[in-house]
Amino acid sequence: MDAQAVLELAPDSGVAGAATKLAGSSGWSGLGRDPEALWGFCKGSGRTPYAVVVDLGDRAAKCSCPSRKFPCKHAVALQLVDARSPLEPGTAPDWVTEWLTRRKAGAAKAVDTSPEAVQRRAKAKERTARSREGAVRAGVTGLADWLGDVADAGIAGLPGRDAAWWHSIGARMVDAQAKGLASAVEELRAVVAAGGAHWAHDAADRLGGLHLLTRLAATDTDLVRRRLGFSVPEEEVRAGPGLADRWLPLIRLDTDDGLVRTVRQWVWGRAHGWFVAIRHAGGGARPAPPLPHGVEFEGVLHPYPGSTRVAVGDTRTETPAGAVPAPTTWRAALAGLEPALRADPWQRLHPLACGPVRATATHLVDTEGRGLPVRRDLPWDRALALTGGAPFTTYGLWTGHEFRVGATALPDRAPEVV
């Protein structure tokens, strides 16, 4: 499980936040893992550290702390530590083995495999799913009403809204178990708070996207369900169909929301085009990229339903990267985004390539003299240093306002990630 999936195991946001801080602390000792469990000791307020163990089969946990929440912050933190960087394999201590043995014995006695029991469990699962569906529908209705109020008051009034007003609608979406809507509202708040010349345009864009999502919420499509916040476990994705190809990781973007750090890596397949692999880490750790840069590898990537996100499957032969074709004009490159925009109108980061281009102080200009504004950051400086002012091919992310350079290539040369 990645860090985001681990945090979703927490019973509430308080446990998730405490676990994130605890995962980065130095109070851990005796850490280890085997194919069945994670274990370790965490220093607490008393003399004796807390003993923590997690069953990797169903993520059940046991901790010697007095918390009444399940899983407790120590159990979630232990899993975050492992998600950040897998613990060293070892032989489970006796106290871990004894707990696992008791669990297996209890499960063997407790699990009723009769057809009636199987049917009862299936019905209970269906009830849980229906309950969440109902909660999300209620959240969508509440958001639609909120959007109507915003439209009546006008966008110009958004910068004057206080934190409590924004928190109220975000909390309603969290309570409705619509994490996608909660994230979209937070993105809107961040756009308004950031200000700048384009804030009203960007806020209108986000509001339009939210309105579209509320109108389409009743449609049972993978894309809409994902945008509402229904997730699919990575293990389930890996068990599904995969795309075999020769892949080149070309663009990397690191973000930090204060709780989880995320690395996104756009990878280009010679037969399948662009996809994105994502990895999260909590506890202040920096997640490692899912794939190695600077090489071309043969492997299988498994797409998530309704998304260009992929889970990394089997990877095999690594070879030096070869040249990657790109449109010769920005007009052609932007026109090529139409299928992606039709497939997911809420996506606002798009991989884009063009070459040859030449750099000006603020733009990358193609052979027709048309330019895209470029983000002037460290990757941009590296690109200029690598190309020395000569025309080059660039690969990066288009945000709708600016181009973020991710990789560059001189004519007939392999891209170099910057």
- List low-pLDDT spans: none
Overall residue-averaged pLDDT value: 91
- The helix content is 25-40%
Using DSSP, what is the number of strands? Answer: 15
**Whole-number radius of gyration?**
24 Å
Order of helices and strands: HHEEEEHHHHHHHHEEEEEHHEEEHEEE
Please, could you describe this protein's structure?
This protein has 418 residues and is α+β, with helices and mostly antiparallel strands. The chain has 13 helices and 15 strands. Helix 7 (179-194) packs antiparallel against helix 8 (199-216).
Give the helix/strand layout.
Blueprint: H1 3-7, H2 13-23, E1 28-33, E2 37-42, E3 50-55, E4 61-63, H3 73-84, H4 94-110, H5 115-153, H6 163-175, H7 179-194, H8 199-216, H9 222-228, H10 234-238, E5 243-256, E6 261-269, E7 273-281, E8 295-303, E9 309-320, H11 330-335, H12 338-343, E10 350-359, E11 363-365, E12 371-373, H13 378-387, E13 392-398, E14 403-409, E15 416-417
Which properties best describe this structure?
single chain; 418 residues; six-stranded antiparallel beta sheet; five-stranded mixed beta barrel; globular; alpha+beta
In short:
The chain is an alpha+beta fold and 418 residues long.
